[in-house]
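Can you please make up a protein's amino acid sequence together with its fold in token form to help me picture the idea?
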Amino acid sequence: YLRRIKNKPDDAQLYEKTGYCYQENSYYEEAIKYYKRAELIDRKAWTIKKIGLCLRRLGRNDEALEYYLQAGEMEPDNIHTTMMTGHCYLDLKQYEEALNYYFRIEYKDPGNLKILRPIAFCYFALGRFEDSEKYYDRLSEGKLNAHDFINMGHLALCRGRKKEAVELYRKS
């Protein structure tokens, strides 16, 4: 792709593909450089989301959020973009704002168990333990992972249920 770009410097798709190769090899700074070049030639939501992903992987969550918000304006009904925007707010510890995005997904896709985790966690982080517990109970209908058990243990501990917390921590 790098050789082909020299011959076709105005081909956005070549920059996208080059950026994707760098991204897949965890060279996020290089990926961003090529995605931004592609964006200058042909602005697409896909490219903007890829820039956001790379920025998030680099821990530059404020910048990542800006790109996901732009992508959300271009594709307001895209559930993945909505979820990633929520995740950026979660990374920034802006839990109320994250919940606004997660609830959009829950409304559009009520059977989506993946969205229950971040909702339950946001409620926990906000100290809304009863609401958090409701979402963890719903999540328990599916398959729980180690992080779920740890967070549920934290929740039980905060609610004064020490024995239950110990059991949940063991399960994790």
